[in-house]
Amino acid sequence: MKNIICIGCGIVGYATCLSLSSLGHSMVGIDTCMIARNRMINMNFSCFSPDEVMFEEKMNDILVDVILIALPTPFCSLTNTLSDESIMLSIGLISYLIKKKKDDNPVMIILQSTVSVGTSRKLFNGLKLFNTDDNCNYHLFYHPEFLRAEKSQYDALHPIKQIFGLTDGKPKMDLSYYENILEEIFSPIGSFRSSITMMSSSEEAEFLKLVHNFSNAMRISFSNCCAHLASLLSSKLDKEIDASRVLSVVSETAESFYNNKYGIKPGYPYSGACLPKDIQCFMNITEQYPYRQFLESVHLINEQEKNK
Fold first, then answer.
1. Where is the UDP-glucose/GDP-mannose dehydrogenase N-terminal domain (predicted)?
2. Could you say which of 3.40.50.720, 3.90.226.10, 3.40.1000.10, 3.40.50.920 is the CATH number of the domain covering 3-200?
3. Which position has the higher pLDDT, 233 or 169?
4. How confident is the prediction for the chain on average, in pLDDT?
């Protein structure tokens, strides 16, 4: 059993707390939002504001083994990427929690927010500036989540894949060392959960999450494009062509077409808190023709569907 602190108790943080507590771990939340804190408290989790933790010392008796970070990363139009402001502003709080560690085992810091590639490294470098003491022993990982907003709690309890990318900690160990610890936390013996998959770096894991989200968006836009073509042909030929029926069959005949769990329906644009901002971040990685135009077309088709 691990003592886990979750910074950010929104959709992802709350679902993760429910999931990990079901494995026997002790969960404590930290959030600036009173609504999020009350939801945690109503589920019998302790949950505090950052001020209560750092200035009122309400967590003095709470042990720390793992720090989860599930903070919002909205799209920033000034930088054309995902904002890491909330994450960087949490460095002081994370450093405070690291120093509360009461044994020699390293604190495992796990970033779950969808971020721009390189954010975990930026966070790690920021933590180094705050923690110059050699006794501050911690390791930082990026752990992309694959949760659907409407079924986040179910998805957290039944993870499809559990991906981790390491940002070098102190001291550097063999990857199997980290893998064994992560297995204890996220996939303990008898839990029947998917095993841990280690990527070569946190940057690779961050890129994987953006590719995952863009893949979903691309298939949604592709299905909407098919719906448009089917409608044109139906009118021209005076014969009904049902795009939903066609795509349902294609999902079985075409390799890796789409994950049926995402419920892609022709004529319905993607929306929500994640895909729109993450797709903008992904397509702004390049300005080179024709790659930018291909990536941008997914966004433009979605905008067309929204405006119908």
1. 3-171
2. 3.40.50.720
3. 233
4. 88
